Amino acid sequence: MSLLRTASRQLAPSRQPFIRAGAVAAQQPWNRGYATEKKIGGFGGQKQANGKYLVSLIEGDGIGPEISQSIKDIYAAADVPIEWEPVDVNPILKDGKTAIPDAAIESIKRNLVALKGPLATPIGKGHVSLNLTLRRTFNLFANVRPCKSIAGYKTPYDGVDTVLIRENTEGEYSGIEHHVVDGVVQSIKLITRAASERVLRYAFQYAESIGKKKVRVVHKATIMKQSDGLFLDLGLELSKQFPNIQFDSELLDNTCLNIVTDPTPYNDKVLVMPNLYGDILSDMCAGLIGGLGLTPSGNIGDECSIFEAVHGSAPDIQGKALANPTALLFSSIMMLQHMGLNEHAAKIQKAAFDTLAQGKYLTGDLGGKAKTHEYAGAIIDNLK
Ligand SMILES: NC(=O)c1ccc[n+]([C@@H]2O[C@H](COP(=O)([O-])OP(=O)(O)OC[C@H]3O[C@@H](n4cnc5c(N)ncnc54)[C@H](O)[C@@H]3O)[C@@H](O)[C@H]2O)c1
């Protein structure tokens, strides 16, 4: 009897198909692992001859241009070694499918990094979400959402400082749905070794890079024994390669209850999870610290990464100088950290936190009266 068959006998029945299919599937792309030393999702960009990095800037729709202007002003005042390359991502239809214009793809592929304002999803024009299209075009496999309380701005919880990392390419969002018979539909949750290992490895590396001591997988492997079971097993397997990081896991429902009861025990952790759990839990955590208007995010890909605020284009306040640029500014700070420009990131972050804590120039959504440019001006004053 082969070793493979002996092993499969000892496993719970629910795990057996993986082992039986293992010999053949091991060679397939969805099963390929990543080399141990490989830095996942790192930034490989180079400075230009003038000493500056080129960064693609998608200003976006609605309030996008207004909040982008604030970022440009703050960056100019802070002498950040960046030149912005404006990029138009107005969608085109290619062979009946939504696509990003070639010039935009080339810009992001050349610069390897982009900052993105909110994009309005066109309704009824046959387009799918542009955000989804960007994610697919650049294979942005990890969505990183830091969740940190802001001193001076009273929110439901104080002292929150955790990070959520969501697998961004498959799981419940694989888009495989079937109409089986009348009244019965089936939606397939796809979990692959390759995509899971990639995001898990990124989570361990990210924890190391920001000095968090623990990585926790959030899952429902008690119910989805094979799909979440694979994700969880891979987390455990990979943890052996990161001896300085403690690894553990928690059921999604317990995480939800525990984090709204007291989020502070999560401050030493990076939480990593399959797609849908990450979608829901990261918005829930944004609620702990004052909502989506203050929440930054990074979409990390193998080569290119795109940083964006998680709020939308806010058409109701467009052109009125009422928009709050904080979420886009914090996303750009994540971008600077990703690019290794840590000193500039720290300087701008401190100026923004100081401005928020002083509370004198807050925008309307935070209870203040300042216009977008007045708030940005106060941050610039605090840079000095
Ligand atoms: N990442 C993205 O690009 C993204 C995300 C969400 C929604 N959208 C798109 O944005 C459009 C509008 O969506 P929506 O109205 O549901 O959500 P929204 O986030 O644009 O607005 C919700 C509410 O929050 C306010 N708000 C949002 N951002 C703000 C900011 N920076 N400063 C002050 N107030 C702010 C708005 O005025 C509005 O009252 C839609 O087309 C949607 O598809 C894009």
Automatic annotation (TrEMBL):
NCBIfam families: mito_nad_idh. One of its GO terms (cellular component) is mitochondrion. GO terms for molecular function: isocitrate dehydrogenase (NAD+) activity; magnesium ion binding; NAD binding. The lineage of its organism: Eukaryota, Fungi, Dikarya, Ascomycota, Pezizomycotina. Belongs to the isocitrate and isopropylmalate dehydrogenases family. SUPFAM superfamilies: Isocitrate/Isopropylmalate dehydrogenase-like (SSF53659). This is Isocitrate dehydrogenase [NAD] subunit 2, mitochondrial. Gene3D superfamilies: Isopropylmalate Dehydrogenase (3.40.718.10). Octamer of two non-identical subunits IDH1 and IDH2. Residues 54-379 form the Isopropylmalate dehydrogenase-like domain. It comes from the Eukaryota. It comes from Drechslerella stenobrocha 248. It is an enzyme of class 1 (oxidoreductase). Its cofactor is Mg(2+); Mn(2+). It catalyses: D-threo-isocitrate + NAD(+) = 2-oxoglutarate + CO2 + NADH. One of its GO terms (biological process) is isocitrate metabolic process. Keywords: Magnesium, Metal-binding, NAD, Oxidoreductase, Transit peptide. Its EC number is 1.1.1.41.
